């Protein structure tokens, strides 16, 4: 398992790394062609904001909407939700290439690329797959079967057939597999896995996290889950085992400010999300206490202020769950 995790770390930092193709942050890539491509895209987006006469290229909101659509499709069809994370990896890496330029400029082409990425991810990851005709149907007839199959070839060629990215969820699995069997009941491990999974699924919809390594997101999601589990739910010896595993295999400083910021971002995403389907989780979380030893010990916050802050987030989270929206059906067209 340790060697597998090491390979996954190499992959996520190498051929499967995602880059900021929208240029929302300062681009420091050594790839001069990529820098020029991003700078050109930034100018195009700025020009489009001047007036309606210029067609607007895609933005992070387009990606967010289509990633939500992907979750709706896999939920409706009963496919593994991890397929969406894999599809987003295809999408993000494709859009960072020259071949993705048309998808950046045309929102309709972008939709086609997202749908094809999901179609390909499901085909690669599931025993059953979607047919091109089904994708055509759920697009409302916007695209033909040939559109799907031709776009798939373009995407796979641009990605050089690298179609098995290490996902945040796969890192969570591997980290939890390292917990000795005697140290935790299956119920506790399943609880940690489910709450961590919820966080990484939401992270897959957030463009601002595409350059964050999947392993780092996995570590943050597990730490957040541990924070909401009191001593009765997560005994001290098991907590120590988990911390040791994350310190040894997470390839990140779990006590650093970057990790602290990421943990907060993941929890904020949960608290602010009202449409994610998380039935059954709220009831189990209500019985836990949301705390953060990291904030208490290293940020100079009093125990009361820590509890107040995280209980506020927790209350928003439970409220968002209880008021979750019904899954929207159909294909959403946006201009």
Automatic annotation (TrEMBL):
Residue stretches making up the Cyclin C-terminal domain:
166-289
Q: Which SUPFAM superfamilies match?
A: Cyclin-like (SSF47954)
TM regions (residue ranges): none
Q: Where is the Cyclin-like domain?
A: 68-157
What is one Pfam family matched by this protein?
A: Cyclin_C
Could you say which protein family the record assigns here? Belongs to the cyclin family.
UniProt xrefs under InterPro entries: Cyclin, Cyclin-like_dom, Cyclin-like_sf, Cyclin_C-dom, Cyclin_N
Q: Does the record bear Protease in its keywords? A: no
* This protein's UniProt keywords: Cyclin
Instruction: Name the chain's protein.
Output: Cyclin-like domain-containing protein
